[in-house]
Specification:
2 domains; 5-stranded antiparallel β-sheet; alpha+beta; about 350 residues; 11 helices; globular; Aminoglycoside 3'-phosphotransferase, Chain: A, domain 2; Phosphorylase Kinase, domain 1
Length: about 350
């Protein structure tokens, strides 16, 4: 495999005939991910809009040793195509693939779009509550519409990448750091295959959600996608919103943003003809446990959140542990409420 970067991508595009030989090309590496190289390509040709090249890397760019198979790039391609079919306009279209180089090209997002994470890190606003509603609504629609989809019997039926990119570096790593939580985490891992599967995106977080004018949403990054328990996606996204709530010392705007995400997820399926794969409130109870496990993972797993030094980490750990081990299952509303109360100075 020829490893591409901003210095040699133009030569690759010319040598493969995807850009004419003498046409100027500008390539810029985009930041944000740990597992791939993502390059924005601008061709000096009015007929060719900018596009993005994405190439897989075996070793992820984190402090701890963490490797994953290069074939995950094709899982991402498959998921992009399925989501594009289920909810047109919510993902960039795939333009071409190069199997030998483990890369694909996709449409470039509108320059006016920004990551939802960047907005939240600057402080949630009333507009972000509307975004959160849409984030929840879109996720629920993907889960509802993908139940029994033919794609879930093919490449996306393989859960081994999810094991390598989420279960092991997140849940099992946390279990080794906190042995007293290992039984609860093992139970959570064992619960996932028992659910009627839907398309699980695996990395549904604010950094992978682009927000544009009038609240348009564009979804990115699907290399953890698989047929599995949709509660994981809800919990994974919720954990990011709870961490930002804690970082903001329990500010009401961050709490309302998290609650709006849940409201969007709860209400989006009310008029959809597709049958639910499981009881919604049971799913949300599992989602609360996934969120708790992910809170711990973003402190003590292989991919810690970059702003953890801004958090009261011990308070987050206690909150997550209580949720995971509670005799009566918490729902996400309780997790948000407890996080807000404690972050604002309530009892830990």
């Amino acid at each position: 495999m020829r490893a591409l970067d901003a210095s040699n991508a133009a030569d690759y595009l010319r040598s493969t005939g995807r850009v004419p030989p003498k046409v100027p090309v500008r390539v810029v590496e985009l930041a944000g991910g740990v597992s791939n190289v993502v390059l924005r390509v601008e061709v000096d040709d009015d007929r060719q809009p900018p596009f993005v090249l994405k190439q897989c890397r075996e070793r992820l760019r984190v402090a701890q040793e963490w490797r994953a198979p290069l074939r995950r790039i094709w899982t991402e391609c498959a998921a992009l195509q399925v989501v594009g079919e289920l909810l047109p306009g919510t993902v960039p279209a795939v333009l071409f693939e190069d199997r030998d180089q483990y890369l694909f090209a996709m449409e470039c997002a509108d320059d006016r779009m920004v990551t939802w994470k960047s907005r939240l890190m600057a402080g949630a606003s009333p507009a972000d509550r509307l975004v959160a509603l849409e984030v929840g609504r879109v996720l629920r629609q993907i889960h509802l519409r993908s139940v029994d989809h033919l794609s879930l019997r093919g490449l996306l039926a393989d859960t081994s990448l999810f094991e390598q990119l989420r279960v092991d570096p997140y849940y099992r790593t946390v279990a080794r750091v906190h042995p007293h939580l290992a039984p609860a985490l093992d139970d959570l891992i064992a619960s996932m295959p028992a659910v009627r599967p839907a398309l699980v995106l695996g990395d549904y977080s604010p950094k992978n959600l682009l927000v544009g004018p009038e609240g348009r949403l564009l979804l990115l990054d699907f290399e953890c996608a698989h047929a599995g328990d949709p509660a994981f996606d809800v919990g994974f996204c919720l954990s990011h919103l709870v961490l930002k709530l804690v970082r903001a010392c329990g500010r009401p705007a961050e709490a309302e943003t998290a609650r709006s995400f849940l409201a969007g997820y709860r209400t989006a399926g009310s008029a959809d003809p597709a049958p639910p794969p499981d009881n919604l409130e049971d799913r949300l109870a599992r989602a609360a446990r996934h969120a708790a496990a992910c809170l711990l993972a973003r402190l003590d797993g292989k991919s810690p959140v970059e702003y953890r030094h801004e958090l009261d980490q011990d308070r987050v750990r206690r909150l997550a542990a209580e949720c995971l081990t509670a005799r009566t299952a918490w729902n996400p509303d309780r997790l948000i409420g407890e996080a807000q109360r404690r972050a604002a100075g309530g009892a830990a």
